[in-house]
Amino acid sequence: RDIAELYGANVIEHAWEGFRDQKNFAIGLATHEWILSMDADEELNEALQLSIRNFISNPKQPHTAARFSRKTFFLDEWILHGDWYPDYIIRMFRNGHGVFTGGNVHERLEVDGKIATLSGDVLHYPAESLLEFTRKNIVYADIAAIDMFNSRKKVSVFSALMHGCWAFLRGFIFRLGFLDGYHGYFVAKMKSFLCMYKYFKLYTLLKKGSL
Q1: Higher model confidence: residue 19 or residue 48?
Q2: Percent of the chain, pLDDT > 70?
Q3: Which class for 195: exposed (0-12), middle (13-18), buried (19 or more C-beta within 10 A)?
Q4: Could you please report the per-residue DSSP string of 34-52?
């Protein structure tokens, strides 16, 4: 907040409502034609900055939104394959043409109209240490499990195991995570663990019958 104010940003404080609702609150405050949604651990590389400038400067722009790839820095390396790259995300849209939907942690931007794909990357720095990354993602997995419980999603021990196994195979084998070597293997194993954790958390909530 202090850095944003230092550079002249209009900073508004608002009680935390969860990722989805907090972002929709922010959208409601926007006054310009285009909205770019960024998280605090992200930045735009120079190629994407140029792409965005060219995109919004077109007075006859037929698209109402744009998507771009996100590249993650993890354990001192850029992850270039697997589930994490190219991780296309829709983050820019015309004011009045988009809203965040989904759960309280895995929110997604839904837009009406045509979506362009821009060159360049959002650079993502999710954590400064493995411990911080693990703690943060376990919290996210807990929130996701609660969302699934509230939406009455069912799960068994077997399906929880299968979800985890598929998460590893998808990221490491089918999406070529093995090309990132040890880092690709570790990312796939972490995804698998967090996926199983989320579903076993849901299974525990279902057995208990309440939060």
Answers
A1: 48
A2: 100
A3: buried
A4: EEE---TTEEE-HHHHHHH
CA atoms within 13 A on the CB side of 6: 3
Residue 81: CA count within 13 A, CB half-sphere: 18
Query: CB–CB of 107/23 below 8 Å?
Result: yes
Cross-strand pairs, 89 = 68
Q: For residue 102, what pLDDT band results from cuts at 50, 70 and 90?
A: confident
**106-113 average pLDDT score:** 91
Instruction: Give the whole-angstrom CA distance, residue 191 versus residue 150.
Output: 23
Phi, psi of 151 (to 5 degrees): -90, 10
Hey, is 204 helix, strand or coil? helix
Task: Please state which of the ranges 25-34, 96-105, 126-135, 187-196 shows the lowest mean pLDDT.
Answer: 96-105
Amino acid 24 reads N
CA distance 143 to 153: 14
More confident residue, 106 or 52: 52
Judge whether residue 211 has pLDDT over 80: no
Give Cα 84 to chain centroid, integer Å. Answer: 10
Give how far Cα 31 sits from Cα of 62, 76, 92, Å: 20, 38, 14
Q: Is 198 exposed, middle or buried (0-12, 13-18, 19+ CB in 10 A)?
A: buried
Say which amino acid occupies 110.
E
Q: Quick count: other Cβ atoms within 10 Å of Cβ 178?
A: 15
Rounded to the nearest 10 degrees, what angle do helices 181-208 and 130-150 cross at?
A: 40
